[in-house]
User: Which sequence fits this backbone?
């Protein structure tokens, strides 16, 4: 009987993975790209999570703003050097966690469903580990910072419906009312009064629209 | 010795800088601000990012490294992010203009009832503060800030001054539960439909303080110094010594002045006085009753996010238009809250601040720390990404502001930095928040949608962008400051900003903070009910 093939294994026995390492595979678990109607909708990788993490440690600033849960100093220090220590630690951690799901092949070569299980186990409180879970929490936060923070790219914002930046380098999103495809201006208002309510506000508001 | 040093440049400090410089031409007035000058107009030595080549005022980015120039988060180092632990988060503006750098321009006068609140049978506000007494000062501030009421339709209204699509959907939800939404009063002129969050509004139409009060102050000769964080205020012969650190050149600074006005925000001002308390001894003792830091109000802030039903495809346009442009006042007479739909950055939502975008395990649960995330709900992965993608089309964010009981507290940490915490929520506040949550859940339901889990029910965290109190004005001799914001036992030392507000207001507070500052400035100039400015500076 033939051995079952590994994920990504070709008939000639070689194992291929589209990922450069386990961390690269992690991005597709935390905030994946999608194929919709023949188009690839970007995920964290395409939004530049590697670039975001390679720059100044935004996690510290994000934590100071309350965007990211309080992380141990060891985790923050790790991410001060993402390209080096943090990535290496994440790769090792992910491969170690992957072994519990399927030994020997590493996180990047697990199936998509198996990678999902591994990450869920690490992030969910039930499987929480003070050493391995905080770096994954930080990685999750970094994905969203890259995707929606307009830090190095606006492709994530476009993926959720924002118009493209007018000039990303200058930090300009859209100017005033953008023109729609029919030539009209979209001012984000219906210019319509709501249906009449039975609720009278005469005793609640004054003529200026303030509470009495 | 300077005549006046003003610490902070928000809705309190900028008003005082403008009015006192107008009243005393030639006086030596220094305004110090710990943040930078985002306008690039007032402090040529400012370190922070300013206007770009097109004259735009802010970048369109939610990069934390950039936002750190504009906002400060005060949090509870013990309870933050820990389920079951009491916690509070206060988001405060930073930079020249203070809170006006990040506010949404909402400019409502506080209801008369706000000024009549009592605690243990004692009126919280000094007797001179009533809605009627403040109305002329409200009008003055509204004129300065170009406050105007928005509209649903453009008959007789500039088209840019219309409520957004999001607001019409909200209004329909209100109508279906028997309530009514009406357009808000906001301080902006012609650019709030820029399609981005408040930090990103990049034209000059949003009439923040840089365009009015700070311009008046500059015209009046006020010396504005940014990047200057004040560490201590201490009494000195004939006045006060203000000391701190100037980031612009990396040096420590010391200023002396006959009069000092502390206006660094509810948490900032309170923290500064707490740090300085030991400097005041003998006849100048400050806060003899140890009241500083108590009764910090969240102004009843409680935000939620949810989704509207399939009948509203692409109807909400949640990320576009004005950040806030309508509100529902229907519940105020009975439940003491208003509801406001608002734009909230998807980044904040996706990262779980102040709402999780996840379903609760018990949608009917109300109260602090009563809910968990429903089984199978995750804030990562493809399904969550697709949920976030609903943000613009069907996701509706709204919140309440109510008359809470000021259950927060400012403390100093081991490094003398201010922190905040929320003590036990009173039954009255809990009742108001629960009623507001009921109303918001019904609105989502009436629109065929559902409400997601919020941080208060999940983690017990109170989030506010409208902190008030900590150093409240009071007629009582035991209060830290009097009805004009003057620190007892310390002539010419004032606190005039959100910290001085004795209670929640139930509406966005910027207009009231500025109106109180206008009233005090007027009284000082005229010597009405307090020693005149001329006498104080003689």
Assistant:
């Amino acid at each position: 009987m033939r051995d079952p093939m590994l994920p990504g294994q070709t008939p000639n026995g070689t194992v291929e993975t589209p990922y450069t390492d386990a961390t690269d595979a992690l991005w597709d678990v935390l905030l994946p790209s999608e194929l919709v109607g023949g188009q690839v909708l970007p995920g964290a990788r395409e939004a530049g999570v590697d670039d975001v993490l390679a720059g100044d440690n935004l996690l510290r600033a994000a934590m100071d703003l309350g965007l990211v849960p309080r992380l141990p100093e060891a985790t923050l220090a790790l991410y001060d050097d993402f390209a080096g220590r943090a990535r290496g630690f994440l790769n090792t951690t992910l491969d170690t966690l992957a072994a519990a799901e399927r030994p020997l092949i590493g996180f990047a070569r697990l199936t998509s469903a198996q990678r999902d299980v591994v990450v869920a186990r690490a992030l969910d409180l039930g499987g929480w580990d003070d050493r391995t879970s905080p770096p994954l929490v930080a990685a999750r936060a970094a994905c969203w910072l890259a995707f929606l923070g307009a830090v190095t790219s606006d492709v994530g914002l476009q993926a959720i419906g924002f118009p493209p930046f007018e000039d990303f380098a200058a930090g300009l999103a859209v100017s005033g009312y953008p023109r729609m495809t029919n030539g009209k201006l979209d001012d984000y208002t219906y210019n319509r009064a709501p249906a009449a309510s039975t609720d009278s506000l005469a005793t609640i508001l004054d003529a200026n629209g303030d509470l009495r | 010795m300077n005549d006046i040093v003003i610490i902070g440049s928000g809705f309190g400090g900028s008003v005082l800088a403008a009015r006192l410089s107008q009243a005393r031409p030639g006086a030596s007035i220094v305004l110090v601000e710990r943040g930078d000058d985002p306008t690039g107009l007032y402090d040529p030595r400012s370190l922070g990012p300013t206007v770009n080549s097109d004259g735009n005022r802010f970048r369109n980015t939610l990069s934390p490294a950039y936002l750190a120039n504009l906002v400060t988060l005060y949090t509870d180092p013990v309870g933050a992010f820990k389920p079951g632990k009491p916690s509070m988060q206060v988001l405060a503006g930073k930079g020249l203009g203070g809170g006006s750098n990040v506010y949404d321009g909402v400019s409502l006068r506080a209801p008369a009832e706000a000024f009549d609140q009592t605690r243990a049978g004692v009126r919280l506000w000094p007797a001179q503060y009533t809605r009627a007494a403040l109305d002329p000062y409200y009008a003055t501030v509204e004129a300065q800030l170009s406050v105007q009421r928005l509209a649903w339709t453009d008959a007789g209204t500039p088209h840019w001054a219309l409520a957004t699509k999001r607001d019409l959907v909200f209004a329909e939800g209100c109508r279906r539960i028997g309530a009514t939404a009406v357009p808000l009063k906001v301080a902006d002129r012609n650019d709030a439909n820029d399609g981005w969050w408040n930090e990103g509004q990049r034209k000059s139409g949003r009439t923040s303080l840089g365009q009015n009060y700070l311009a008046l102050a500059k015209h009046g000769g006020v010396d504005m110094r940014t990047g200057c964080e004040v560490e201590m205020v201490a009494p000195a012969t004939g006045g006060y010594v203000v000391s701190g650190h100037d980031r612009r050149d990396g040096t420590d600074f010391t200023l002396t002045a006959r009069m000092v006005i502390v206006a660094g925000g509810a948490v900032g001002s309170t923290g500064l006085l707490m740090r300085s308390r030991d400097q005041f001894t003998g006849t100048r003792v400050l806060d003899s009753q140890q009241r500083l830091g108590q009764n910090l109000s969240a102004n009843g802030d409680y935000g939620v996010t949810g989704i509207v039903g399939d009948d509203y495809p692409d109807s909400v346009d949640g990320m576009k238009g004005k950040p806030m442009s309508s509100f529902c006042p229907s519940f105020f007479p009975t439940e003491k809250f208003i509801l406001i739909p608002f734009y909230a950055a998807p980044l904040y939502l996706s990262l779980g601040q102040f709402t999780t975008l996840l379903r609760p395990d018990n949608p009917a649960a109300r109260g602090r720390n009563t809910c968990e995330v429903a089984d199978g709900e995750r804030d990562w992965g493809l399904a969550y990404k697709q949920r976030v993608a609903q943000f613009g089309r069907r996701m509706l964010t709204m919140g309440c502001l109510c008359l809470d009981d000021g259950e927060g507290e400012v403390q100093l940490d081991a490094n003398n930095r201010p922190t905040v915490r929320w003590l036990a929520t009173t039954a009255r506040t809990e009742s108001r928040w629960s009623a507001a949550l009921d109303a918001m859940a019904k609105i989502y339901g009436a629109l065929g949608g559902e409400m997601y889990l919020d941080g208060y029910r999940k983690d017990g965290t109170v989030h506010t962008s409208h902190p008030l109190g900590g150093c409240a004005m009071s007629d009582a001799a035991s209060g830290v400051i009097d009805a004009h914001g003057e620190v007892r036992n310390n002539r010419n030392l004032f606190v005039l900003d959100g910290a001085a507000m004795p209670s929640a207001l139930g509406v966005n507070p910027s207009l009231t903070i500025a109106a109180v500052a206008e009233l005090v400035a007027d009284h000082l100039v005229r010597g009405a009910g307090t020693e005149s400015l001329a006498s104080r500076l003689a």
Notes: The first helix of chain A runs from residue 22 to 30.
